[in-house]
Amino acid sequence: MNKIQNQPALVFFLSLLLLISGKVYCQDKQVPKGTVQRIKVHGKGLEGNLDGDSANRFVSVYLPPSYTTNPKRRYPVVYFLHGYTDDDAKFYGFTRHWMNLVPILDSVFAEGKVHEMIVVTPNAYTRFQGSMYSNSVTTGNWEDFVAKELVSYIDSHYRTIAKAASRGLSGHSMGGYGSLRIGERNPDVFSSIYLLSPCCLMAGTNTTQVPTSFFRADSIKTMAEFEKADFGTRAVFASAAAWSPNPALPPFYIDLPVKNGELQPIVQAKWAANRPLTTLDQYIANLKKLRAIAFDAGTRDRDIASSIKVLDEELNKYGIQHIFELYEGDHINRVAERIEKKMLLFFSDNLSFSQ
User: What are phi and psi of 160, to 5 degrees?
Assistant: First the structure.
């Protein structure tokens, strides 16, 4: 009688054990892992830059799990551009950072919902902590390095599908800016672009109030002072090195937007000419050639959220298809999630995987 009464409890207990065992098995199950190579690529267009930065640039290359097991297979490539003050090492686990791309890529590819692809990030950390992915005698020709020299190197050294339809371009913050800048100029190289919280798309709308960072930058005379400066002031130097270089003005070889306490209209004009929303109308034909465009930002990242709203409006005006999202978040707190759940799926859906 006791045996009969205890059977339901025994069945429940055994079922629970099986359930627990199943969970343990899933947790212990090995996720196929990709490999990361950190190489150096020489940039001919980076030679002789006045910053004195090396033309031999570190580049991190993520190769998906099947790259080593399927030697005949070729892959699309996503070029991921890092933000200001960052570098490639931080995003690929060589240096501790707020986000590591590698486990995200491993996990997403293991799920099988996203096609495998190669992901490449060049180290654009410069004397002033960021290149803005622009061509300049002071920083070197970073736009050309990414769109021409780096792409050519990767295609010649890895099993890529070497055509625009199989190349994507993405980036965060400064890297988002670089992705739009380079993408709209090179539709013959890249077919799809995804901008994560892209900075610097347009100038401030308040033309009467000069940013205090401009005045702080004007007061800096040595590299030691620059290195002690706040983030915004250092970003002024990086922007000037990219957009208002001056080869006749050592030691920084830049024209700052404020000089001796006076606003410099010519420098303002040069900076405006490098803001994608200022020049968007000149690149409409190229933007229409792109297969897919997407961009997003956190609602608490107010200036950037405002700028991508304008980008959305401008693209709508020209009837250019795109994906635009604002999400609850700030400049960095949900970027890893966006890469995992949005960006990689976007490229999986839009890049060509046929050789």
Answer: -100, 165
**CATH superfamily of this structure's domain 35-202+277-350:** Alpha/Beta hydrolase fold, catalytic domain (3.40.50.1820)
Strands (E), the chain: 35-42, 56-63, 77-81, 118-122, 135-136, 140-141, 167-172, 192-196, 258-259, 262-263, 292-298, 323-327
Q: Which of 264, 330, 343, 258 is nearest to 299 (CA)?
A: 330
**What DSSP string runs through 149-199?**
IIHHHHHHHS-B--SGGGEEEEEETHHHHHHHHHHHH-TTT-SEEEEES--
- Which residue is associated with the tokens 């606003």? 263
Segment (H or E) for 282: none
Two tokens at 15? Answer: 């079922």
This prediction has a pTM of 0.90
Q: Where are the domains of the chain?
A: 35-202+277-350, 212-271
pLDDT at position 263, please?
96
Element (H, E) at 13: helix 2-28
Segment 194-207 mean pLDDT:
85
Cα torsion 201, 205, 208, 211: sign: negative
| Residue tagged 């409006």 (tokens) | 313
**CB 238 within 8 Å of CB 274:** no
DSSP output for 64-81: -THHHH-TT--B-EEEEE
Closest CA to 242 of 144, 145, 82, 128: 128
Rounded distance between C-alpha atoms, residue 314 and residue 281, angstroms: 9
Q: pLDDT: is 240 or 28 the higher one?
A: 240
**Other CB atoms closer than 10 Å to residue 89's CB: what's the count?**
18
